[in-house]
Specification:
This protein is an alpha/beta fold. The chain is built from 2 helices and 8 strands. A hairpin with a 4-residue loop joins β1 and β2. One of its GO terms (cellular component) is cytoplasm.
Length: about 150
């Protein structure tokens, strides 16, 4: 399981097929999450717990010292199978290591549920759909969990 976490001033996800905004936040964290074959709910639970406690939000002295809940921020979580792109074999990436869509969707929904159980306001993308994403990064602050 991989996460790319970016601190944002605002972020929005639009489903291209109908131009509907499916997720939108102000101050908070924009999270891309990818699942590899063999990932488990236990791993998703652990990463949700770790992410909920991540202290990258600014305090009164503009230091990265607060969690998302402490600043009443939100998260926008988007599934991103391309995080498991393998480019070793040439110029066209292979996604053979990415989890199958049905299993990945279950893990994605489980991950989002676990974040919500931490009293985090979570918006999400539209799993499996082509989306356009707008994000205004803050800092920028980008953290990779692998």
């Amino acid at each position: 399981m991989k996460l790319i976490v970016q601190r944002v001033k605002r972020a929005k996800v639009v489903r291209v097929s109908d131009q509907k905004t499916v997720g939108e936040i102000g101050l908070g964290l924009f999270v891309l999450v990818g699942f590899k074959k063999g990932d488990t709910e236990e791993e998703a639970h652990k990463l949700a717990d770790k992410l909920s406690k991540l202290r990258v939000m600014s305090d009164e002295s503009d230091k990265m010292n607060k969690s998302i809940n402490e600043v009443r921020g939100k998260m926008l979580v988007v599934s991103q199978f391309t995080l498991y792109a393998d480019t070793k074999g040439g110029n066209r990436p292979s996604f053979i290591n990415a989890e199958e869509p049905e299993k990945a969707k279950k893990l994605y929904e489980y991950f989002v549920t676990k974040l919500k159980e931490k009293d985090i306001q979570v918006e999400s993308g539209s799993f499996g759909d082509y989306m356009q994403i707008e994000a205004v990064l803050d800092g920028p602050v980008t953290i990779l969990y692998d």
